[in-house]
């Protein structure tokens, strides 16, 4: 069976729906990945063949002031998951992020490009990637700009803001691929079904700025609002973000035959589902 850790989260919920065969989910308080005893108890209880870890401390700005917690959950937690899964001969699937890169490459990142996180969150997730390798049967899936039906995300924030504003400023100088968690879950399923190992990138295809993404959300939702340009330096957020962190997903396509749909199509489907 497959055990999804972090199953109450945005991606976790879609993994529960899409992974093949018998799938169980677990989250806080039934498992705490900062405790080896807690991880081992879950492994003993479920005896999984595969553990998919989508649990993380995902507050990117919060990580800047909670370095210790970020490293415990996103870094050391993964080391303990790797040890525990290795101990029972199970595979570990670890979800990671484009924020392990510095965004200065200027073209889509390949899996073996040099990393260079700009934030505590990025550093902690990179530590998680390195620690996942304690289990030789590991699969690391880097993704980016997630939104889904079961969590706080950019699409919902934009729709909420648009409800009582007639203009908004959104950044034009961060470029990436908005990714629907349902499509990411399908990519992880494809990788698991082919027993892929090592590091892969998985995101919806195509790329845009957050400002373009906001424009598409409003256009698809029939909302008329003035959308102004903004640059990242004006935002003054605690964590630095990579400016261009598009992920090259060619290896996913080559090894599984699966290419996530264009981000514009994914957004349309998501908006339809959230209404329905
Ligand atoms: N969101 C994005 O844009 C994005 C982009 C790239 C990569 N990722 C990665 O994708 C994965 C899934 O992200 P997501 O947005 O679905 O995250 P999420 O909605 O924040 O879900 C994470 C889940 O992990 C749980 N959790 C936190 N600390 C834990 C602990 N110590 N032990 C066990 N569970 C714990 C959380 O519980 P509580 O809610 O109770 O804390 C939550 O249910 C993460 O690895 C994230 O780093 C996300």
Can you tag this structure with a few keywords?
276 residues; six-stranded parallel sheet; two-stranded parallel sheet; alpha/beta; Rossmann fold; binds NADP nicotinamide-adenine-dinucleotide phosphate; 10 helices; globular
Structural class comes to: alpha/beta
Shape: globular
Count of DSSP H/I helices: 10
Q: Total strand count, please?
A: 12
Helix content: 40-55%
Query: In CATH terms, what is the fold-level topology?
Result: Rossmann fold
> What is the H/E order?
EHEHEHHEHEEHEEEHEEHEHH
Which regions contain 5 or more consecutive residues with pLDDT less than 50? Answer: none
Q: Architecture, according to CATH? A: 3-Layer(aba) Sandwich
Q: What is the terminal separation in angstroms?
A: 31 Å
Strand content: 15-25%
| CATH C-level category | Alpha Beta
Task: Provide a descriptive summary of the structure in words.
The chain has 276 residues and is an alpha/beta fold. The protein has a single domain, classed as Rossmann fold. The chain has 10 helices and 12 strands. The strands form 4 sheets. Strands 2-1-3-4-5-10 form a 6-stranded parallel sheet, sandwiched between helices. Strand 1, helix 1 and strand 2 (23-26) form a beta-alpha-beta unit.
Summarize the structure.
This protein has 276 residues and is of the alpha/beta class.
């Amino acid at each position: 069976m497959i055990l999804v850790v972090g199953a109450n989260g945005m991606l976790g919920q879609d993994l529960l729906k899409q992974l093949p065969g018998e799938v169980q989910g677990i989250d806080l308080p039934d498992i705490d990945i900062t405790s080896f005893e807690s991880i081992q108890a879950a492994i003993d209880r479920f005896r999984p063949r595969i553990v998919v870890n989508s649990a993380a401390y995902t507050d990117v700005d919060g990580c800047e002031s909670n370095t210790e917690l970020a490293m415990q959950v996103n870094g050391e937690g993964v080391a303990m998951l790797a040890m525990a899964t290795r101990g029972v001969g199970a595979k570990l699937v670890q979800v990671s992020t484009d924020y392990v890169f510095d965004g200065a490459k200027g073209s889509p990142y390949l899996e073996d490009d040099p990393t260079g996180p700009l934030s505590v969150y990025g550093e902690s997730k990179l530590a998680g990637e390195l620690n996942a390798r304690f289990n030789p049967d590991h699969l690391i899936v880097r993704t980016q700009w997630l939104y889904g039906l079961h969590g706080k995300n950019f699409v919902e924030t934009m729709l909420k803001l648009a409800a009582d504003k007639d203009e908004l400023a959104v950044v034009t100088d961060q470029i990436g691929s908005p990714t629907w968690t349902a499509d990411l879950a399908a990519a992880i399923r494809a990788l698991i079904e082919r027993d892929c190992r090592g590091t892969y990138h998985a995101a919806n295809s195509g790329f845009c700025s957050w400002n373009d993404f906001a424009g598409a959300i409003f256009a698809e939702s029939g909302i008329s609002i003035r959308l102004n340009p903004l640059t990242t330096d004006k935002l003054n957020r605690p964590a630095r973000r990579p400016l261009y962190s598009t992920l090259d997903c060619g290896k996913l396509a080559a090894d599984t035959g699966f290419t996530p749909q264009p981000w514009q199509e994914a957004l349309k489907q998501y908006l339809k589902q959230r209404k329905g």
